[in-house]
């Protein structure tokens, strides 16, 4: 990681596993990582696909003249352009994937009457086993991510589903077993990032696709992030529209662990603890959790929350918030040592209804920090100098 990116390096931290830390002092808004997905799959239950390209997940408008369908499964898989279609037919929508999804969509699909979560997991497994065939190197990378074999009923069921719909004779070195299927499911659960549907203030946030980003997978969680990630699925004009970009939220010293929040930062203490335990297998001991563990239920509820879809490692967090926030890019100082997160919410949380996104400054220009804050969910841009003036 440090070879091609001198800003961050990977280290091993006791009780946290692999982690990413800053190699030098970082300025608010600096980009510390750009990463491309090795696996990308739809977040929609079968047979739906949403109005998104089946390869790059761009929104396809209903009258788009450039949209083309798969020559085999037709309108079940739509692509935003013939270029995307031809890349997809060689990579993400091979005959293997096309055949498997066609069977999973059929009237006698083994997924019928099963929960939508199983549909999405089956989509992931089809994409992951396809990866083993089209890019053994990237499949090996997927296997190196956090997530252990745990053969439970869900893994046994999904393995039997995949066995019945996929011609899996070409897996070669990796074999095909319920243990491999269960390991893949664990990698997905701990490491997938959600790419959100376009923001709509009148609707709850929801995910259009999930991706595995191999380098971004090394960010650990903190309930007050010091970095957050952005994507530009619909606005980027090239083939890298599904890349994610991670920027630091405020100035950081060298050697500081850089953390994201694995879910929207406005969840209350008990929900955060529960999700981290159940979904990621650890008990969070960050500064914010240590403060909030002593709050009464009333105080906890006062924090408020916005209803959210489960979007996995979506937002962003810092193990020493107070120290980092004393001087910030906008010159505000932290006023209350006990509640650094009150400052965080005021400064770095998007205030739009149903958004719950995190704000980070745009990248510095000529080493000068930007005063423009960007929300990583709704994309809204605001000027923090104006915000300061209003306070
Ligand atoms: C996406 S991975 C992050 C990288 C991981 N540490 C590794 O070694 O690959 C998520 C896993 O990292 C660990 N982790 C993340 N944040 C943590 C934290 N704040 N405290 C302890 N463990 C954490 C948990 O095991 C979690 O399931």
UniProtKB/TrEMBL annotation:
<feature type="region of interest" description="Disordered">
    <location>
        <begin position="297"/>
        <end position="317"/>
    </location>
</feature>
<protein>
    <submittedName>
        <fullName>Histone-lysine N-methyltransferase ASHR2</fullName>
    </submittedName>
</protein>
<dbReference type="InterPro" id="IPR046341">
    <property type="entry name" value="SET_dom_sf"/>
</dbReference>
<feature type="domain" description="SET">
    <location>
        <begin position="6"/>
        <end position="263"/>
    </location>
</feature>
<dbReference type="InterPro" id="IPR044238">
    <property type="entry name" value="ASHR2-like"/>
</dbReference>
<dbReference type="Pfam" id="PF00856">
    <property type="entry name" value="SET"/>
</dbReference>
<dbReference type="InterPro" id="IPR001214">
    <property type="entry name" value="SET_dom"/>
</dbReference>
